[in-house]
Write a structure and sequence with these properties.
Oligomer: single chain
Largest sheet: 6 strands, antiparallel, barrel
Shape: globular
Helix content: 10-25%
Strand content: 25-35%
Order of helices and strands: HHEEEEHEEEEEHEEEEH
Strand order of the largest sheet: 8-9-10-13-12-11
Distance between the termini: 45 Å
Number of helices: 5
Length: about 280
């Protein structure tokens, strides 16, 4: 615990320094590290209960027997998550598949972790990580892969997000899988909104919104957004102000389509039109 605390302070300090160097205030945004102990929590705000059978691609990444974040299975031995999550994972971590509560399921040891080669150069950009398990996932009604997109969804398309966000202070996992529906916003709207906070938008970023309704909470970082069996984004960050409430801002995602070729090369995942 002490080591994790030191790591968290160092990480948050580094991210703040990065934000200041780029001319915007890092404190405006909530981070994966700080969210695990900030006490916010409803799981997916305005979400509904669901099951792993409806979302069999979902995995939870466990470090030191503690839930860290979510991920999505994309091939027989690989899952994807955000770079912010993946950098905390090592070969002592495990990937849990087939889990309704995010803490119990079929456990697979981690063999390797691959961060996008451009991760960390600019915060919120290139926020991708691939986690390889030892051996292969055992396919079942609770464990199946999603496919990669060849292009982004059209603006205002509904997308489904699933996760195990926390409900109590200091507990990263909710104990119940929840799902919610949000709209995929046109990237020009995303860029315009976040320009007010000094954030330079890139093609590796996307955003979703469901004003006054569905948003994400503590423990929901790296939750996958899926449309018709295709993973289109992973939750990265949002504004501290209104976090996990009806007043939440649009969520910033790691856009999958723009780096799908890299994910495919790394993991062997299939595109949406591949059998």
């Amino acid at each position: 615990m002490a080591t994790n605390a030191v790591y968290s302070y160092l990480t948050i300090g580094l991210l703040l320094a990065t934000g200041l160097a780029h001319g915007w205030v890092r404190e405006d945004f909530v981070s994966h590290v700080s969210s695990l102990t900030d006490g916010h929590g409803l799981g997916i705000y305005d979400g509904s209960k669901t099951t792993i059978q409806k979302h069999p691609y979902m995995v939870s990444l466990m470090v030191g027997n503690q839930f860290q974040c979510a991920g999505a299975i994309v091939s027989p031995s690989w899952a994807i998550t955000t770079g912010d999550c993946a950098q905390q994972v090592n070969t002592t971590a495990v990937v849990l598949a087939g889990s309704n509560d995010g803490v119990k399921g079929v456990s697979y040891n981690v063999k390797s972790v691959v961060l996008h080669p451009s991760y960390g150069q600019t915060y919120f950009d290139y926020d991708y990580g691939c986690v390889q398990i030892s051996g292969k996932f055992k396919w079942s009604s609770k464990t199946k892969p999603v496919k990669l997109p060849k292009k982004d969804p059209k603006g205002n398309t509904p997308v489904i997000v699933t996760g195990w966000g926390s409900q109590t202070y200091g507990d990263a996992s909710n104990g119940q899988m929840l799902q919610g529906t949000m709209q995929w916003l046109p990237k020009k709207k995303c860029a315009s909104f976040y320009a007010n906070y000094g954030l330079g938008w890139t093609s590796r970023m996307a955003c979703t919104y469901n004003k006054g309704k569905t948003t994400l909470c503590s423990g929901d970082f790296s939750d996958p957004f899926v449309q018709k069996g295709v993973v289109v984004g992973l939750f990265v960050t949002t504004l501290q102000n209104g976090f996990c409430s009806k007043d939440a801002a649009p969520l910033i995602l790691a856009d999958i389509a723009t780096v799908a070729p890299w994910i495919k090369t790394t993991t062997g995942a299939k595109y949406e039109d591949e059998i």
